[in-house]
Amino acid sequence: MALYSKFILWRDGNLILAKANGSWSRFTAEDYASQFKALAMPLAGENWAHIIYLENWQLGAPDIEPTVKDLVSWCLHNGLRYAAQVYCPSMIKQYQLDRMIIASTADFEKRVYPNQQDAFAWLASLGYSSHCQDLIRAG
Questions:
Q1: CA 5 to CA 70: how far, in whole Å?
Q2: What is the DSSP letter of 25?
Q3: What tens digit of pLDDT does each residue of 44-91 get?
Q4: I need a surface site. Which of 4, 50, 53, 100 has the fewest CB within 10 A?
Q5: Quick check: helix, strand or coil at residue 131?
Q6: Which of 89, 83, 105 has the alpha carbon at shortest distance from 36?
Q7: Could you write out the DSSP letters of every residue in 47-65?
């Protein structure tokens, strides 16, 4: 994947891993959603998890929000059970992410971690382990 890419996505077993960069437009969000669904489709009907590194993500235009909300809905209807977001505390990031991604339902839980080690440990404790333990250097 090119160094200037706005995101990197890959699957490791029953875990979808991602790294987001820069500021996103609606087109970036649509491309991300399309690629995410293609990766997750083989997991549909099973329980799976997601981890995303957002430290280098610089928010998105307001028009990304419907696309991300639709992706979240699709994920919840297709087996996503746990999501870990990794970024240093940022009220503005948290505000936009919370507008797009719910915190929990009866079958889903999202957590935010300031470091990837804690995020990977939480997911591993739930049975979602990965060969990758370093999202910073991934891609």
A1: 22
A2: -
A3: 999 999 999 999 999 999 999 999 999 999 999 999 999 999 999 999
A4: 4
A5: coil
A6: 83
A7: -EEEEEE-TTEEEE-GGGH
Report whether 85 contacts 120 (CB < 8 A).
Answer: no
Residue written as tokens 């929000």? 65
How many C-beta atoms lie closer than 10 Å to residue 61's C-beta?
13
- Angle subtended at Cα 43 by Cα 42 and Cα 45, rounded to the nearest 5 degrees: 115
Statement: residue 138 has pLDDT above 80: no
pLDDT at 4: 56
**What distance in Å separates the CA atoms of residue 135 and residue 139, rounded to the nearest whole number?**
8
Cβ within 8 Å of residue 97, ≥6 positions away: 54, 85
Q: 27-38, pLDDT tens digit by residue? A: 999 999 999 999
Beta pairing, strands 15-20 & 7-12: antiparallel
Separation between Cα atoms, residue 92 and residue 72, nearest integer Å: 20
Cα angle vertex 3, ends 72, 5, to 5°?
30
d(CA 33, CA 35): 6
